[in-house]
Design a protein that fits this description.
The complex is a heterodimer of chains A (about 800) and B (about 160).
Chain A lengths: L27 H5 L15 E7 L5 E7 L1 H5 L3 E6 H6 L4 E3 L5 E3 L5 E2 L5 E7 L2 H10 L1 E6 L6 H4 L19 E8 L1 H9 L3 E12 L8 E7 L4 E6 L4 H12 L6 E4 L15 H13 L3 E4 L2 H7 L3 E12 L5 E11 L29 E8 L16 H19 L3 H8 L8 E2 L5 E2 L4 H12 L1 H13 L3 E10 L11 E2 L2 E2 L2 E7 L5 E5 L8 H13 L6 E5 L16 H28 L6 E4 L2 E4 L2 E7 H10 L10 E6 L8 E10 L6 E11 L6 H20 L31 E4 L17 H18 L13 H10 L5
Chain B lengths: L6 E7 L2 E7 L5 H8 L18 E4 L2 E4 L12 E3 L12 H9 L8 H14 L5 H7 L10 H16 L1
Parallel strand pairs in B: 1-5
Antiparallel strand pairs in B: 1-2, 3-4, 3-5
The chains are: A alpha+beta (about 800), B alpha+beta (about 160).
Chain lengths: ~800, ~160
């Protein structure tokens, strides 16, 4: 663990392709030829299809289900209802957050689009016709959409199935930090800034929806589930525990995954229904949800109602933070948060600032909405935290009349304070926040923009400049603190070097577009000098890969990436003994450079890793095990803390209220970089997924609980037209505890971008008396504000 | 097994003539994926909102989920599998590889078809024209800039 990379120029040749090379992605040739293999492309002989009857009501009693007409539809073979599952004890299932949710209801539906029955048929069209022919008799019940109303004493208890001491819609109450210290700090502050900030419900909307093929072999008594999951091993264990099928009789197999972003972590009822259907029929059963099912029923993200009180001195020194939050989880807490953290890592809300006191409390609440609380391309609830603190700091700056950049500089955790212990208990590993903000300000020409803004304001034009200086917290474990349903959050890599010097590595994580086949090969290339092109990376087959917790929360590089480096170093250690044998030298007299062990002082006496690999199978010394392979289960000693500073410039159309992002500079620091092209792609994607909730996306419900964003016409995913020309740059502050000095990057931009945009909009409107606007900042919202303030085009 | 009346159609798919009997309710997407096993064309929303199933029919881009197979009778259809030239990546495909335009890859066949059709109609598009040409193709990994750069680089390369 003593080895830490600081050099940024690649140390390997382009042919080897270790860290720092912008290697072309090895998965891309199949993608751009149309030869990717996604779940919808997998067809098995004799396969049946499953489709789902869904509730039109958000809350209703099921008085009866009449499937007789459905069973007459040609091709329909079976109908599965909640009563059928109840007989097998499978009508409820655990969520990853330790709550439970219905697979199918027996009596009551709890949200619009909830699964009510399943149709099994010999074709997709027959299954869909069967769905249309099922008659369900519903009696509507009062609907609870507003989480604040859900907490009122006369609200109907939505989950009477919970224990007698839990007959309330409050799921849990969670606290972090020191309440007395925060109260004292705020009481002694010159100014306390208070604001309500709503971070709305949104959906990851990966372009590939969720799906699976469950394939039960009644002769072998073996279940294979081909599925779209970000966490194959955890799914296998949960399936085994719930179904009682022994774990060695279950194989989870992923294929190419068309985007995940957190939405493919949970177990959805459709997966379980396909398994039940296959167990019943003895045939493979395929379920693929359609787009509206995906948007209406799958796990959502966010839905946090945050109230912040931020204390400050008159000259802008932050003194304390108090945060009270209502978290709307729908009818079940189906978050994918570690069990000790029901609100995820939301208490990283002190952000990039040296805040001496903080207290955070969160109440999880049930409502008649789909279950969830998964991520939207962010580590556990970090986006909610970053949006809140970055909005609050900006409001403080404006209210005190201090430039937002100056106020941030004044309160940043300074480089010499790392490792930094936050008021809510985190140990930030490394950072240089002033450097990142300074760099962003230089690139965008901050001072000049402020002058331009003043001139434009004098002319009545609306231009705003917004900053976000975010700190991420990613890479869970450490396993002493982090688990999912009791399974510890380590991750793994197994490397086998073949006799001719090429290799295969298998990992416990699961790519959904992150380019693992390329980056993990580059790590091995870096460590062993084997060209990345000679290394196969394999994930997503639980029969072959070592156990791991999967890919989400930007954890693959911090955990499995580290495991890969350590496994490679174990191989290098054994290679040293083999080289000593081949060179007839003492192992202590050898040194490692660029894929070779050579005799110190005699650089022409060496053995390459390829020669050593061949010897491991053909000429290994007596008493040594044959072969050259290693496995590592890496348990990180701490999380990693990527960070960055973003600056956004917006122009607002006074006639339409439309916000145009004119410029957006993103300076990111994710520690050492494995593949700069992939990192850049991840940041671009993350920025666009930050723009989306800032300006466009929200899932809203009417008072009857009808989802108002169930198609791509209503749920506005940005296209190429809306996406600004992102300007990206970086600083590099390696993680001191990660073996490669890397930190993870996939979600930084999603976390950092929304407040930069929101801050820019409010900055453009502050002089009109606007303090805060909740995202998404739609033209309608801005237009209404402008009219209220008497601004016309 | 339920018997459904079928209708005979002829398509030229990626330059090859195919005589098929198709169910009247099957879409062009169904026939490409299920009957012809050309699974490069992806299925996502089935209502023409995402562009994942984009193919080129007689020179124009079409969401193949919105076109019945019988409507395509007699047409020339190009899918992503038809872009490579003698088994080698087309310049547009090569540019996607060079620019790192693909991430999860799911939308990429549709993006390639829209870009291919755009360049056929407008060999020298501006950035704004590229963005407009791709506006019907959602990419959630959001590599829009890299995709646009790949299209512009292809146009530039064709001039040399």
């Amino acid at each position: 663990m003593s080895e830490t990379y600081h050099a940024q120029a690649p140390t390997t040749t382009p042919e080897v392709g270790g860290m720092g090379h912008a290697l072309k992605r090895r998965e891309d040739p199949r993608f751009i030829r149309g030869k990717g293999e996604y779940i919808e492309d997998v067809m098995l002989p004799g396969m049946l299809w499953l489709d789902i009857v869904r509730s039109p009501y958000a809350h209703a009693t099921i008085r009866g289900i009449d499937a007789s007409e459905a069973l007459k539809v040609p091709g329909v073979l079976a109908v599965i209802t909640g009563r059928d599952l109840e007989a097998a004890g499978l009508h409820w299932m655990p969520t990853l957050a330790g709550d439970r949710q219905m697979v199918l209801p027996t009596d009551t539906v709890m949200y619009q689009a909830q699964e009510v029955a399943a149709i099994v048929a010999d074709s997709r069209y027959a299954a869909a016709d069967g769905v249309a022919a099922v008659l369900v008799d519903y009696e509507p019940l009062p609907v609870v959409v507003d989480p604040f109303k859900a907490l009122e004493p006369d609200a109907p208890v939505l989950r009477p199935d919970r224990g007698p001491d839990k007959q309330t819609n409050r799921i849990w109450h969670w606290e972090s930090g020191d309440k007395a210290a925060a109260d004292t700090a705020l009481a002694g502050s010159d100014v306390v800034i208070s604001e309500d900030i709503y971070i709305p419900r949104i959906h990851v909307a990966s372009i590939e929806t969720c799906g699976c093929i469950a394939d039960w072999d009644p002769v072998r008594e073996h279940l294979t589930v081909h599925m779209t999951t970000q966490a194959p091993h955890a799914i296998r264990t949960v399936f085994s525990l719930v179904s009682k099928i022994p774990e060695h009789k279950i194989r989870i197999k992923t294929h190419d995954i068309g985007g995940g972003f957190g939405g493919k972590v949970p177990v959805y009822p459709g997966y379980v229904l396909a398994v039940v259907a296959s167990l019943t029929t003895g045939k493979p059963v395929k379920w693929i949800e359609d787009r509206s099912e995906n948007l209406q029923a799958d796990s959502f993200a966010r839905d946090y109602h945050v109230h912040c009180d931020l204390g400050t001195t008159k000259d802008g020194r932050l003194t304390g933070l108090r945060v009270r939050t209502i978290a709307d989880h729908g009818y079940s807490d189906a978050a994918a948060d570690p069990s000790k953290f029901p609100a995820g890592l939301f208490n990283v809300i002190t952000g990039s600032y040296d805040l001496p006191a903080a207290f955070v409390e969160v109440d999880g609440v049930y409502t008649n909405k789909p279950p969830g609380g998964v991520a939207y391309r962010c580590s556990f609830r970090v986006t909610e935290a970053v949006h809140s603190i970055e909005r609050m700091v900006d409001i403080a700056a404006h209210q005190l009349g201090i430039d937002p950049a100056e106020l941030r500089m004044k309160n940043f955790i300074q480089p010499d304070q790392f490792p930094y212990h936050s008021a809510t208990g985190w140990e930030y590993d490394s950072g240089n926040y002033p450097a990142a903000l300074r760099k962003a300000m230089e690139i965008i020409g901050y001072d000049e923009l402020r002058r331009e803004q003043a001139e434009k304001r004098a002319r009545g034009e609306l231009m705003g400049i917004g900053i976000s200086s975010f700190t991420e917290i990613v890479g869970a474990g450490p396993s002493h603190t982090f688990d999912i349903l009791g399974i510890k959050m380590f991750d793994s890599c197994e490397i086998r070097i073949h006799p001719t010097g090429s290799a295969i590595a298998r990992l416990g994580v699961q790519s959904q577009g992150q380019g693992h086949e390329t980056t993990f090969a580059q790590i091995i290339a870096e460590e062993l000098g084997i060209p990345a092109t000679d290394i196969t990376i394999e994930e997503g087959d639980t029969d072959t890969a070592p156990y791991g917790l999967g890919t989400y929360a930007s954890r693959s590089t911090p955990t499995a990436g580290a495991a890969t480096a350590i496994a490679a170093r174990k191989i290098r250690d054994k290679a040293r003994l083999l080289a000593a044998h081949l060179l007839e030298a003492n192992p202590d007299d050898l040194e490692w450079t660029n894929g070779k062990w050579s005799v110190k002082g005699s650089p022409d006496r060496f053995k390459t890793i390829q020669e050593i690999a061949f010897a491991a199978y053909t000429n290994h010394p007596q008493g040594m095990e044959a072969g050259l392979e290693a496995v590592d289960y890496y348990d990180p000693p701490n999380l990693t803390f990527p960070f960055g500073s973003y600056i956004c410039v917006v122009d607002i159309d006074k006639g339409t209220g439309q916000v145009k992002v004119r410029r957006f500079v993103a300076v990111d620091d994710c520690g050492n970089i494995i593949n700069p092209m992939i990192v850049d792609g991840q940041i671009h994607g993350g920025l666009t997924m930050g723009l989306a909730p800032a300006l466009y996306e929200a899932i809203t419900y009417d008072e009857q609980g009808n989802n108002q964003a169930g198609t791509f016409l209503d749920y506005l995913v940005p296209t190429a037209m809306e996406t600004p020309a992102w300007e990206t740059d970086k600083t590099i502050t390696p993680s001191p505890h990660h073996p490669l000095g890397a930190k993870g990057v996939g979600e930084s931009a999603t976390v950092g971008a929304p407040p930069a945009i929101a801050n820019a909009v409010v900055d453009a409107l502050w002089h009109l008396g606007v303090r805060h606007i909740d995202i998404p900042i739609t033209p309608q919202k801005v237009w209404a504000i402008l009219r209220e303030k008497g601004v016309t085009a | 097994m339920n018997e459904i009346e079928t209708i005979a159609i002829e398509l030229t798919v990626n330059g090859r003539r195919r005589a098929l009997k198709v169910a009247p309710h099957h879409t062009l997407l169904d026939v490409l994926r299920d009957d012809l096993e050309l699974t490069g064309t992806k299925e996502c929303c089935l209502v023409g909102e995402c562009g994942a199933c984009t193919v080129i029919v007689d020179g124009r881009t079409v969401d193949s989920c919105l076109m019945l197979a019988v409507e395509a009778d007699g047409a020339a259809v190009t899918t992503v599998e038809g872009l490579a030239i003698d088994g080698r990546l087309s310049p547009l495909q090569a540019a996607f590889l060079d620019k790192g335009a693909a991430q999860c890859g799911f939308c990429i066949p549709g993006q390639l078809m829209s870009a291919h059709a755009l360049l056929a109609l407008n060999p020298h598009p501006t950035l704004a024209e590229v963005q407009e040409g791709l506006a019907g193709n959602l990419c959630r990994c959001a590599g829009y800039q890299q995709i646009s750069e790949a299209v512009l680089a292809t146009a530039e390369g064709a001039d040399r």
